[in-house]
Amino acid sequence: MLLGFVDTKKIIATSSFSQDPNSNVFEITKGLPIISSEIETIIAQNPDIVFADPYAKVALIEALTEIGITVIQTKLHNDANGRIDDILLAAYATGELESSFELISLISNKVNYINNFKKKIPKNETKKVLALTYYDAYWVGGAGSTEGSIIELSGGVNVAAQAGVVSNNMISKEILISMEPDVIIIPQSVEWGGQSFYDDLKSDETLKDIPAIKNNEVYMVPAKYFTTLSHWNIRGVEELMKILWNDPKFDLNLEIFGDFQQCLQCDFYEN
């Protein structure tokens, strides 16, 4: 999120997740020092501010605070309004409010277009969508999940939430079949078994009557857009809208879709 509006010279280190080749900000962060949750590695960078995720240990936050380092622990929201709140908090802390307003304007323009577009979708054409991955079991994005918020904002029905699943949770094959999704999206990278799962799902004879599988509506989608907790989730919404509504009768305007850029001296947005 910070890399959407903060001058990169102010960012002295990142987590390993930001520097993964599949990250949304890999090209910007590669080469920066990587920190872990070990207090020594953080202190060595001599930061003025540390942004900690909701899962950071209390002992770590207390230790950093005791030596005079400001720690901001953010909840990180997965809804459009919450994302803007997160950006404003970080912008205020880093003195980058002006550049954050540009990013917020871009997000707001995208969300406004999406909300207006959804008004054109007839209720009888609404599609039941399932965000499905497989690791040790079938996992789905239920009510309150990041994937679920993307499905809902895109104009789809989150069938996992409809079935009573909360957050990201495991389900059985029987429950998967009973959900009868019209569309299945797989936000799981190839490196983490996404392609293998896609192939297995399509070839499993016991699943062949699921509408999404029967009608060839199973899609691999970029995990970096669907599992991050940042404004990049809007890109996930756009990618899902291309799957659900890219039919001439819906008149989906693809020209407004595109990646966010980190750039303080040029355009933030790239078509």
Structure description:
The strands form two sheets. Strands 3, 4, 5, 6, 7 and 8 form a six-stranded mixed β-sheet that branches. Strands 1-2 form a two-stranded parallel sheet. α4 runs antiparallel to α5 and α6 packs across α12. It has twelve helices and eight strands. By secondary structure, it is an alpha/beta fold. It has two domains: 116 residues, Nitrogenase molybdenum iron protein domain (Rossmann fold); 134 residues, Nitrogenase molybdenum iron protein domain (Rossmann fold), CATH 3.40.50.1980.
| Overall form | globular
Query: How much helix, percentage-wise, in residues?
Result: 25-40%
Alpha-beta content class = alpha/beta
What's the total number of strands? 8
* CATH second-level architecture of the largest domain: 3-Layer(aba) Sandwich
Unreliable residue stretches? 262-271
Task: Explain the layout of strands and helices.
Layout: H1 26-29, H2 39-43, E1 49-52, H3 58-66, E2 70-73, H4 80-94, H5 97-118, E3 128-134, E4 138-141, H6 146-153, E5 157-158, H7 159-162, E6 168-171, H8 173-179, E7 183-186, H9 194-203, H10 211-214, E8 218-220, H11 223-226, H12 233-245
Parallel strand pairs: 1-2, 3-5, 3-7, 7-8
Antiparallel strand pairs: 3-4, 4-6
Helix pairs in contact: 4-5, 6-12
Q: Could you list some keywords that capture this structure?
A:
disordered C terminus, six-stranded mixed sheet, 271 residues, 39% helix, 12 helices, alpha/beta, two-stranded parallel sheet, Rossmann fold, 2 domains
